[in-house]
């Protein structure tokens, strides 16, 4: 069974490759994504693998692509299922070619190789207005 580090590395690879189906499959059937700092048009909470799949497919049509997710720091907690990751999301606006980096703190609960909870605190101020692109 994959541990949290392996699951998160696979997640990084799948997002960089744009494999939305496999990304969604990393989640437990009742997995949750929470985005407490979500900007307009982005839901603050997605419940269930299929909701995550549907949202991820819609997000894949937005005019940006993920170039990399650089891990700055990985923190294990007293709970072996919970990890905290400091990340720099590197992306490119596909309509303009502009690249940007967004700092993130991400909290995960991973059990038996599946993501149960992904809480993303993204520095939304670093993300360009994609609607204007």
From TrEMBL:
Residue intervals of the SnoaL-like domain: 13-116
Gene3D superfamilies: 3.10.450.50
Pfam families: SnoaL_2
Coiled-coil region: none
Stated name of the protein: Nuclear transport factor 2 family protein
Organism: Actinoallomurus vinaceus
Lineage: Bacteria, Bacillati, Actinomycetota, Actinomycetes, Streptosporangiales
């Amino acid at each position: 069974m994959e541990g949290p580090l392996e699951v998160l590395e696979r997640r990084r690879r799948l997002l960089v490759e744009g494999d939305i189906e496999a990304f969604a499959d990393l989640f437990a059937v009742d997995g949750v994504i929470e985005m407490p700092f979500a900007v307009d048009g982005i839901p603050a909470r997605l419940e269930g693998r299929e909701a995550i799949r549907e949202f991820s497919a819609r997000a894949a049509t937005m005019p940006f692509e993920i170039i990399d997710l650089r891990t700055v720091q990985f923190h294990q907690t007293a709970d072996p299922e919970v990890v905290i990751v400091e990340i720099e999301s590197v992306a490119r606006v596909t309509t303009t070619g502009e690249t940007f980096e967004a700092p993130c703190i991400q909290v995960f609960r991973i059990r038996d190789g599946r993501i149960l909870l992904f809480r993303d605190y993204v520095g939304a101020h670093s993300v360009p207005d994609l609607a204007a692109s």
